[in-house]
Amino acid sequence: MDVLIAVLSDAGKTYVIQGGYVSEIDGLSEFSQGANSGWLYYVDGVDSGKSAGIYKLKGGEVIQWIYTLDYTKESGAEKWNNTPLPGEVTGTVNKDTINAALKEIQKGSKESWTLDLAQGSIAFDKGALEGLVDQIKEDSLEVSIEPISNKDLSSKQKEAVGGRPVYDIKITVDKKSISQFKGKLTISLPYTLKEGENPSGIVIYHLNDAGELVPMEGYFDTASGKVVFTVDHLSYYVIGYDEALSKWPFSDVVQNDSINWFYSPVKYVYEKGIFSGTSTTTFAPNSPLTRSMLVSVLARLGKADQAAYKEVVFGDVDVNSWYGPSVAWAKEAGIISGYKNADGSYSFKPDANISRQDIAVMIDNYNKSVAKQVYKKAEAVTFTDNLQIYEYARASVSEMQQAGIINGIKNADGTFRYNPLSNATRAEAAAMIYKLLSQQ
Q1: How many other C-beta atoms can be found within 10 angstroms of the C-beta atom of residue 122?
Q2: Is 214 in the same domain as 336?
Q3: Any idea what the Cα angle at residue 327 is, between residues 77 and 69, rounded to 5°?
């Protein structure tokens, strides 16, 4: 690894190194060209089978670094398949990379620069990057996000923390730790809700040397499954839980199924982190669901590796938007197909409200390609407005009805209609997902 760093530095190339592997060289990063793309190296034409960070050279070897679009097709792939890399807690970033990111922010191309590590990510704003550049005298800095055990804490700190997760977050420049910053750092740490925990009860604390827990502004992002908070200094941080904050947050959903038929489904999908509210106090159960919202929900259900998706085929979808990677995943999985334009291109219409027939199609496609759940079939019901259901959606509507995922709307004479062209509401979508999961 030292040889590569020396060569890149001499050539003026930027790079990002996470622990023992190279994630980016000269702006070309892993996964940017597909889920299996990234950097590989060979010694005398042979894969070493070891991380570059631990491989030792004897002298005289020929080292070749290549960027591959699909590592599974490269020589030596049989050693890597189904063998995950160990989680790296430290990333090494050279000064040129920091300078290049700062220039992008200064000219308005982006608002921040993010470094992703196995244990979380840190987004640096303009002020934070400027402060780093001022302090880097050599070629690089090291960034680490590391979970720590109680044995690393003082007795007072142990007492304060209890059994909650603690992270040590550090940036080291020229062997000196930087703890205070001119700007802001937005940190995202992965967290899985425990049984009985509500997203609103998750809190973040700074754990100081005296063993005091200092509350920080932050929140649990149900979409990503991460605790997100912004700081201007680095230290120990604790992911805590506050029962007082965990009470039912939505003023527009009464906690009674006899009053709001959708209470149990909304409670289920919220506490599982599948749906989030439209604000900290509202769920908006009767508001229409957009196509982008549903795709994002299905991506969370399917545990999609959204970081692996760097491009999308639809012209009206920005892959860097909050829903972009979910749309790319859903297209690849065969859940969506989009709308064909006159010029042969396709659009997704992310902001359009999703119809009741289309939500049936997407959930049916999700089940067939991702969940692959086999349901006990109920008696088929022919909806009185069956002829209004478009041909492409009829099979899915019938499948979801027999699976008990949709019931239709009861008419005065005891028959049922489906209202296929009406907008699906957030409550209706929550109910469908609830029924889908309760049968697994």
Answers
A1: 24
A2: no
A3: 25
